[in-house]
Amino acid sequence: MVVTRFAPSPTGYLHIGGLRTALFSYLWAKQNNGRFVLRIEDTDKKRNSQEATDAILKAFQWLGLKHDGEITYQSQRDEIYAKYIKQLLEQDKAYKCYMTKEELTELRETQMANKERTMYNGKYRDFDGVAPEGIEPVIRIKAPLSGEILVRDGVKGDVSFQAQDILDDFVIARSDGAPTYNFVVAIDDYLMGINEVIRGDDHLSNTPKQIVIYEALGFEIPKFYHVPMIHNSKGKKLSKRDGATDVMAYKEMGYKPEALLNFLVRLGWSHGDQEIFNMAEMQELFNPKDINKSASIYNTEKLDWLNAHYIKNSSNNELAELLTDYDLVLTSHDKKEILLDAIKDRAKNLQEMADMAKEILSTPTSYDKKAVKKAFKDESIPILNTFGAKLSNSESCHLPTDYHSLMQEVVDEMKIGFGKIGMPLRVALLGKMTGPGIDVVMAVIGKDETMQRIANAIAANS
RNA sequence: GGCCCCGUCGUCUAGCGGUUAGGAUCCAUGGUUUUCAUCCAUGUUACAGGAGUUCAAUUCUCCUCGGGGUCACCA
């Protein structure tokens, strides 16, 4: 069974980089009828918070991603890690190091001055003397001093590291006994049965260290897939101002979850020429072997296009429901179908869509100057009056076609072009020259409101 | 700086020795729409550079250049 995981450290909200690796992991597990588990990496007690964990869960919920089983918190697994540290100590695969921080800093500075690689010098590796007084030791692993460490990566291929280039006896437990990242990751991934690790390629150079742990403990090494980074438009790591914002901010901006997911799944992964993937298709088609090797640049153009696509293809019921989050309540509006049909093709996002609806639904308080000058001329007033009179006498105006016939009558009787009535009417009803079909607008706002707006416009612009 | 990864249109990508280098997005133009948007059509734009290997390189190898990641008692 395939078991994948998402293992964030709760130091902030979930952003799209994390979400993408979570999505990849999720899809791969689901496709294989496997499990997708969540582990919170909160071993650094100073830097993490419950709020951050809650924020991640909230984002998952919005996007419809569900983890399997209970959440594992590393902070609650101290005894487990202690057990393995003890074991390694007893097997002489790890040792206590009494070097002080000052001593370490000094060592490092000397190495830098000599242009050597900065690394621990193994001072206590084979120490059997009397431990210095008053120093709480850290625990270091006895890492191999030479030889090759091979990472068999499903995305990058085989990546080979030389032990002498990259390894030293790194710390696996701090002086306060708390275990460190590379140590607990290996233990937890093994204990949780995770056999396919999909994560950012910023972890690629950590992987040899984790392999050292796996081997010291005799654990089976999982399959790794290191996913390239997402960069900003300058090709640098994503920062808060250029996209690494809270995933929930995308909801506020009016993006639909399926658009965000579809956007992210295509960032670094592809399936031929296909662009549109619903969740079922993603689950069926995603395969980490098709992940790109190179980093991609984050850019909202395609996300906007996808979002517009998904909005256009949403049912009006769903849209009406979603729009309540953007301060637009349409549930009781009798012409909501007509309204929604009229604006769903025009909006890039739900926020914009809500604004359009509100604009149509509310009586204009001002009129665009250019629009008035261009389309609301003196000759327009008798035309509007004629139309108004017809409307006033009309008994059954409900649908756009009803209003359209009325406009047609005016055009025919006055022997004018359609534009002579269309544009002035548009300005009168919306205060500007752009928007949905004018007959549609009238149907949505109704006969009384239409006549009111015509009267308002004539009063204000003549 | 050491080590590691990467390099096809502006962007997301297809390609896996022989292609007019494909799609999508963006942009532009035209059509449809009384307007706007949608939709449809058309168009501009790419193999980082240099050596090899080969009958043939975007594709394989090496070098250069460029970009990124990582080198903690952070994760």
Quick synopsis:
With 462 residues, this protein is mainly α. The chain has helices at 16-31, 50-63, 78-90, 101-113, 163-166, 181-191, 207-217, 247-252, 257-265, 279-285, 301-312, 316-323, 336-343, 350-361, 369-375, 380-393, 400-414, 418-430, 438-461; strands at residues 3-6, 35-40, 72-73, 94-97, 138-141, 148-153, 157-162, 171-173, 196-200, 223-227, 230-231, 296-297.
Main attributes?
462 residues, mainly alpha, Rossmann fold, Glutamyl-tRNA Synthetase, domain 2, 4 domains, three-stranded parallel beta sheet, three-stranded antiparallel beta sheet, 19 helices, 12 strands, 47% helix, elongated, RNA-binding
Structure description:
It is a single chain. By secondary structure, the chain is mainly alpha-helical. The protein has four domains: 78-227, HUPs (Rossmann fold), CATH 3.40.50.620; 241-314, Glutamyl-tRNA Synthetase, domain 2, CATH 1.10.1160.10; 315-360; 363-462, Arc Repressor Mutant, subunit A (Orthogonal Bundle), CATH 1.10.10. Helices cover 47% and strands 11% of the residues. The protein has 19 helices and twelve strands. It has helices at 16-31, 50-63, 78-90, 101-113, 163-166, 181-191, 207-217, 247-252, 257-265, 279-285, 301-312, 316-323, 336-343, 350-361, 369-375, 380-393, 400-414, 418-430, 438-461; strands at residues 3-6, 35-40, 72-73, 94-97, 138-141, 148-153, 157-162, 171-173, 196-200, 223-227, 230-231, 296-297. A three-stranded parallel beta sheet has the order 1-2-3, covered by helices on one side. Helix 1 (16-31) links the parallel strand 1 and strand 2. Helix 9 (257-265) crosses helix 11, helix 12 crosses helix 13 (336-343) and helix 16 crosses helix 19. The radius of gyration is 32 Å and the shape is elongated. It starts with a strand and ends with a helix. The mean pLDDT is 94. The protein binds one RNA strand of 75 nucleotides through helix 4, strand 7, helix 6, strand 12 and helix 11.
